[in-house]
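User: I've been trying to design a sequence by hand for this structure and keep getting stuck. Would you show me what you'd pick, starting by listing the structure so we're on the same page?

Assistant: Good idea, let's start from the same input. This is the structure you sent:
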């Protein structure tokens, strides 16, 4: 039986994710920007929370943990334990934990922060990437380097293309406008922008998104392509250097 995944809008433009196993009744949460909308989503469905998985230490991903953690196991990165809410289970990259009766892989994704992790559930073809790989984008490099983030994105890009990328923010429309400055003639990008605009006009989230679509349209995943390198005027540059230039341009966009 597949896990049900529910996208929960929080704050101004954040997303949390609820995972539910109907047969066992188990429910997990990935990130907790604020408690109220998450509690409302749980109550509406009659679900009880068992686990909270934390991707990184920023307040807009952890501020709701304290109000939600009663009787709940909190899971996060051991390397970041000193700046996360108290952890019941500290995990490291490469670890595998069981959540909602499913094996969850912990992936190291530094760049946005140095302790950022992603959670991959192979049997559900879903990865919870928060502010590493995002829909049409990636997180700002607040703590890590361009080389670190490129390596992180490359790890995520190597997941099966049918993987659902559950990222942390509704930045997709702005990211798409920037992507056009890099690949203005990319037909997949133009088709995706039409879809994004329709979703936002209807008040719907643009996330999750499939990795296959990110590989076709997300400029931060495409820095190794000769056509993108040429467009950046960096035909012979290392992949991570091209990525770094794309990130720098986005920061000023």
């Amino acid at each position: 039986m597949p896990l049900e995944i529910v996208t929960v809008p929080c704050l101004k433009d954040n997303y949390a994710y609820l995972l539910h196993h109907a047969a066992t009744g188990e429910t997990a949460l990935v990130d907790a920007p604020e408690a109220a909308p998450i509690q409302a989503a749980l109550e509406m469905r009659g679900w009880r929370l068992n686990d909270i998985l934390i991707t990184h230490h920023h307040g807009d991903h952890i501020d709701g943990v304290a109000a939600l953690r009663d009787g709940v196991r909190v899971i996060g990165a051991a390397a970041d334990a000193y700046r996360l809410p108290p952890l019941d289970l500290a995990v490291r990259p490469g670890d595998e934990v069981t959540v909602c009766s499913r094996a969850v892989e912990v992936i190291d994704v530094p760049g946005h922060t140095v302790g950022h992790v992603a959670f991959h559930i192979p049997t559900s073809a879903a990865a919870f990437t928060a502010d590493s790989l995002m829909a049409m984008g990636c997180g700002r490099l607040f703590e890590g380097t361009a080389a670190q983030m490129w390596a992180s994105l490359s790890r995520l890009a190597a997941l099966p293309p049918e993987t659902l990328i559950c990222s942390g923010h509704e930045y997709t429309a702005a990211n798409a406008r920037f992507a056009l400055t890099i690949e203005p003639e990319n037909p997949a990008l133009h088709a995706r922008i039409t879809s994004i605009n329709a979703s936002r006009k209807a008040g719907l989230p643009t996330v999750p998104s499939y990795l296959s679509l990110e590989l076709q349209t997300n400029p931060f995943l495409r820095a190794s392509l000769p056509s993108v390198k040429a467009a950046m005027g960096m035909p012979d540059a290392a992949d991570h250097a091209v990525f770094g230039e794309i990130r720098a341009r986005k920061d000023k966009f």
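That's my pick for every position. To get oriented when you compare it with your attempt: The two ends are 44 Å apart (CA to CA). The longest helix spans residues 187-201.
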